[in-house]
Specification:
The chain is mainly alpha-helical. Helix content is 56%, strand content 6%. The chain folds into two domains: 62 residues, no CATH class; 165 residues, no CATH class. The chain has eleven helices and five strands, in the order αβββαααααααααββα. The chain has a three-stranded antiparallel β-sheet. Bound molecules: zinc ion.
Length: 238
C-alpha cells in the first residue's frame, strides 16, 4: 500500500501488530538537513538515544498518530476494512441489491461521491498491476464504467471544490451526511466484494477506488463528458 507519507504507513504497521512493543522514530535533523528517520524499539538503548545518530529526538509513532484525530487515508482504510464486513453481515442483501436506482436518484452531492466510491470499489480490478501506467489504465477503465452507468441514468455529478475522505467514513458509519439508504446501498456493493476477493485484491481495489472517487468529485460527471478515456456522446450513441 502506498500511503500519504511514510509516517502514516509506519503507523499502520504498528497498529496491526499484536505485541505491545513501542517503536520510536528519530526526527533528528542531520547536517545534510535530512531527518535521520531511524526506527528503533523503545527501552533498547541507553536513554532511548538513536543508535544511528546518537541523538534523542524520537517520537513514539503510535502515540503520534493517535494524537492526530483528523481523518487521514490511513484512518479511513482501517475504518473501511472494519465496518464493511461487519455491517454487510447484518444486512438483508436481497433488498439492498435492487435499490441502486433509488439510491442514486435521491442522492445529494456528498452522497454521490460516497456512492461513486462504492461503485468504483466494486467495479475496479483487484489484479496486480505491473507499472504505474498499468495501474492507471485499470483505474480509468473502471472510472469510465462508472461514468457510463451515470450517463445512462441521466445522473449528473456537479464538479466539487475538493474531495473529503470524511464523507466516505461518514457513509461507513451511517453517520450524519450520508443518509441511510445511500449508506446501506453503498456498503452492500462493497460487502459483496469482501465475500469473493482476497485481502490483497480488496486492498488494491480500495486504493484505486479512493482515487477514482476523487476524480469523479473534482471533474464531475455529465452527458457532456469528453475525456480521453470516456466520451459521453460516443457512449450514448452506441
Ligand atoms: Zn537518529
Amino acid at each position: 500500500m502506498k500511503f500519504m507519507n511514510r509516517f502514516n504507513w509506519i503507523g499502520q504497521q504498528q497498529d496491526d501488530e499484536d505485541s505491545n512493543d513501542i517503536y520510536l522514530l528519530c526526527k533528528n535533523e542531520l547536517p545534510n538537513r535530512i531527518r535521520c528517520s531511524h526506527i528503533y524499539k523503545k527501552n533498547t538503548y541507553v536513554d532511548d538515544t538513536c543508535p544511528v545518530c546518537g541523538a534523542y529526538a524520537a517520537v513514539d509513532i503510535y502515540k503520534d498518530r493517535k494524537l492526530d484525530s483528523s481523518l487521514n487515508e490511513n484512518g479511513l482504510h482501517r475504518l473501511f476494512f472494519e465496518r464493511v464486513p461487519k455491517v454487510y453481515k447484518e444486512m438483508d442483501t436481497s433488498i439492498w441489491s435492487s435499490l441502486g436506482g433509488s439510491a442514486w436518484k435521491s442522492a445529494d452531492a456528498n452522497e454521490q461521491v460516497f456512492l461513486a466510491f462504492c461503485m468504483a470499489f466494486a467495479e475496479v480490478s483487484g489484479a496486480l498491476t505491473k507499472s504505474e501506467s498499468d495501474y492507471w489504465d485499470v483505474a480509468l477503465a473502471a472510472e469510465a464504467r462508472v461514468r457510463a452507468y451515470l450517463v445512462d441514468r441521466k445522473i449528473h455529478i456537479v464538479k466539487q471544490p475538493g474531495f473529503d475522505l470524511a464523507l466516505i467514513a461518514d457513509g461507513m458509519l451511517a453517520g450524519r451526511q450520508i443518509r441511510s439508504l445511500r449508506a446501506h446501498y453503498g456498503i452492500s456493493l462493497c460487502g459483496t466484494i469482501f465475500e469473493t476477493h482476497s485481502r490483497a485484491e480488496i486492498d488494491r481495489k480500495y486504493q484505486k477506488a479512493v482515487k477514482i472517487a476523487e476524480r469523479l468529485a473534482i471533474l464531475g460527471c455529465s452527458s457532456r463528458d469528453n475525456l480521453p478515456y470516456f466520451s459521453a456522446a460516443n457512449h450514448l450513441a452506441a
